[in-house]
Amino acid sequence: MTPFVADPVYLNGQFLPLAEAGISPLDRGFLYGDGVYEVIPVYSRQPFRIEEHLRRLEATLAGIRLANPLSLGDWKAVVEKLIAAAPWEDQSIYLQVTRGADDKRDHAFPPASVTPTSLAFASPLVTTPADVRARGVAAITVADQRWARCDLKVISLLANVLARQQAVEEGCAEALLIRDSFLKEGAASNIFVVKDGVVLAPPKTQQMLPGITYDVILELAEQHGQALVVREISEGELRAADEVWMTSSTKEILAITTLDGALVGTGQPGPVGERMWQWYQDFKNTVMRKG
Ligand code: PMP
């Protein structure tokens, strides 16, 4: 076991130590990035929005024309078993399904006799330290060089990897992806903007991953009477924003306070984001950490 992945892991119907979990070099996940994934946060050993994560997995599998190797109930049982066996209270569960390993390399789908490869494992949940959250983080903008189906949570993430690496090399936490002069999302997060007290959220199109955290934020805004408009956000509006936040299952809601070296608003996390963060914590604690 590494400090970052619990034993056992789940691989193709078996629970076994990570060190014994082997995958063929001909696996199409390895050869082509031909597969899908999910990341589910776990608080106090309870998976957060597991139904929604498993539904998104199902939608992505349908999008790449791969039958789900496990039923919803079977996935839940796998996740529960991993959570119970892992040593941490708060975790991150990773699920991956690839189109399996044929006996040769061929772009077209393998014969039906080739079964998908299913992998799942638990890691400790890595949260943002309080001082980083209080200051906010820096981000850059980059051209969105991804393919045309960014709504699918596929493992082919090379453009995201390069964008995030560029951010890291420039001392930043995230790269915001701009396509045709519009903000789409981050390399591994959704992005919200605040202007004059109104939250703006890019719409769910094929150019953005439909985030589970994104949905929670839309629900919380509605519940608390926070003005929120879903519409395309231009690069100009992004740069003139009072607040910018990144959201994801592991980052939750994190203020971006510097963009391409310029301050966002006052350069401090703003009041709307702070309120949303508190609503998110209250929601999470009510739903997840019931004494
Ligand atoms: N967009 C991208 C490209 C992502 O990779 C992620 C999460 N990893 C998100 C958005 C946020 O999705 P979620 O809130 O479901 O974690």
What is the level-2 CATH architecture name of the largest domain?
Answer: Alpha-Beta Barrel
User: Briefly, what CATH class of the largest domain?
Assistant: Alpha Beta
Write down how many β-strands occur, each being a DSSP E stretch of 2 or more residues: 16
Structural class: alpha+beta
CATH fold-level assignment of the largest domain: D-amino Acid Aminotransferase, Chain A, domain 2
The largest pleated sheet is described as: 10 strands, mixed
Order of helices and strands: EEHEEHHEEHEHEEEEHEEHEEEH
Question: What percentage of the residues does DSSP assign to strands (E)?
Answer: 25-35%
Kindly give the count of domains. Answer: 2
* Annotated CATH homologous superfamily of the largest domain: D-amino Acid Aminotransferase, subunit A, domain 2
Whole-number mean pLDDT: 97
Question: Which residues sit in consecutive blocks of at least 5 with pLDDT less than 50?
Answer: none
Shape: globular
